[in-house]
Design a protein that fits this description.
The complex is a heterodimer.
Chain A (H helix, E strand, L loop, with lengths): L4 H7 L5 H16 L5 E3 L3 E3 L3 H16 L3 H4 L5 E3 L16 H16 L10 H4 L10 E2 L2 H9 L10 H10 L1 E3 L13 E5 L6 H15 L6 E4 L7 H15 L5 E2 L9 H4 L8 E3 L1 H9 L10 E9 L1 H11 L9 E6 L1 H10 L1 H7 L3 E4 L8 H8 L3 E4 L2 H7 L5 E4 L2 H10 L8
Parallel strand pairs in A: 2-3, 2-4, 6-7, 6-9, 7-8, 10-11, 10-13, 11-12, 13-14
Antiparallel strand pairs in A: 1-5
Helix pairs in contact in A: 1-2, 2-8, 3-5, 7-10, 9-10, 9-12, 10-17, 13-15
Chain B lengths: L4 E4 L8 E7 L3 E2 L1 H4 E2 L4 E2 L15 E7 L5 H10 L6 E6 L2 H10 L3 E2 L6 H4 L5 E5 L4 E4 L4
Parallel strand pairs in B: 2-6, 3-6, 6-7, 7-8
Antiparallel strand pairs in B: 1-10, 2-9, 4-5, 9-10
The chains are: A alpha/beta, B alpha/beta.
Chain lengths: 418, 139
Amino acid sequence: MRLIELEQEMLEGRHGTPRKWAMQQLMRVGRFFDAEDFVEVSQVHLMADAESLGAAGVEFLERVAKAPPEHRRARVPTVTDPRGIDFEAYRRLGQTEKMAELERRAIAAFRAMDFLLADTCINYQTVMPPVLGEHLAFGDTGSTIYANSVLGARSNFEGGPSALAAALTGRVPRYGYHIPVNRRATRAFIVKVRPRDLSAWGALGGVIGRRVQSYWEVPAILGIEGAPTSDELKHFGAALASFGTVALFHMVGVTPEATDLPAVMDPGGSAPETIAGGDIDAFYRSYGGGGDKLDVVVFAAPQLSLMELRTLAGLLDGVAVHPQTAMLVATSPEVKAAADRLGLTQRIERAGAIVLKGVCFYQMHAREIGEAMGWKRLMSNSAKLVNIIAGYGYAPSLGTMEQCVAAAVAGRVPKGAE
Amino acid sequence: MNGGRIIRGHAGIGPSVTGVALVADDYFSARYDLDRSAGVFSRPAHKLYGQSYVGRVLVLRGAKGGVATAWMLRNMVAAGKAPLALLLNIANPIMVQGAAFADLPFMDRFEADITQAIRTGETVTVDPEAGRVTVHAAQ
């Protein structure tokens, strides 16, 4: 790889051991993908919950944090993805002191590196939305696909170690979606039915994601008339990335690079496929559970916006969650503060739900929580969450936000929701 | 361990190793698919559900899902609950970043479908630097 003088100095260790490690990490990845040089990034979004880090990851962060300040501080603004512990709620969820301690150690290390502990996966809505053509190192699949697709910024999936390396160096190897020609659509999907709510947008993302199944495929979506909302595209993109490991989509007439199909479609791309209402219905039916006792309803993945919290508060006014069922709601610390100030948190919690801040359910030791609380049957309006959570020992059901609330009140998954 | 079939791929990451293959026509995510403390596939829909991957040359179609695997591979190696090597038809950046961080032998982009070219139980040598996998004849 071609290096400029600063990059060569960092690689040689003249800016400290952490930046030397960071250049080595990035160059191993860059060489794997035949990158020719580096590209500077303006923001880093770092996924590093303690469940994923484990003891080995936290010890690594602590070694970086012990370096002198001029060697360990982030070179570009770096915000964190959700943590694994909400310190105001973890005991109620059966999380252990050991989990909390690991999280505290990770947080102390991030502070030493001058990272901004935003603890959010919706930083593109709530912290600083990227702009067209901006190069980024975003570290959550949902934040990356949204920044790439809806905002036209440029990022690969930068998993924790590489996002950390990007924070320490201010750059990433130039490959994948930093290169314009790789951003052209290779598949096209004509959507015949407009999703009616957030979970259906997630289901549509899941249907397309299951068909794509490759990081290097870029789907173009046709047939969506009129702009969807940011929350709708958030659920669509998060599910598409989760089911298909996709990092970029174009929605013709909606996303900024896709003024029309020829503007984004690779001439060698495959013929358009059709997505009909039956495909979305079949996706819902692939998650069962109708009639089962419901243990927990989770609204998360991605964290909820203020608008979603407002809708949920409206649905929960005057009702109570069944005593045998729990309801968890996850949002960012900043949105939680706004929800507190606006009375939304109080309305949601009055019904028996718990509003969590700075966490997301699947990133908070969900297996151990399920075992401690005796939870098995889970319902959510997030297609991404139901996709992930089966691996953690849960039996998931997918429904709309309204169906999830009704099910939580009844204590059972409704028949026909699946 | 001389002789055997040679399968070429793109140059990869990590040291050369020899071990027994565990192969499936399915995808891989450490977060979605594994019980990392037990060292087994825990996602009921996965084709390797219930099987241990510890110490095996794990051969699968491709990467799936989220970013967590980038951290998790190093912790799995440190805990002695990792595959010996990972071979995929096509990687995503997360698998590569995780393998680089963990120094776990890892390769992709083979001349043939790697999930068809190797069978479970075969002994293979993975040489990432040379971009070469050797499948040894049964003893």
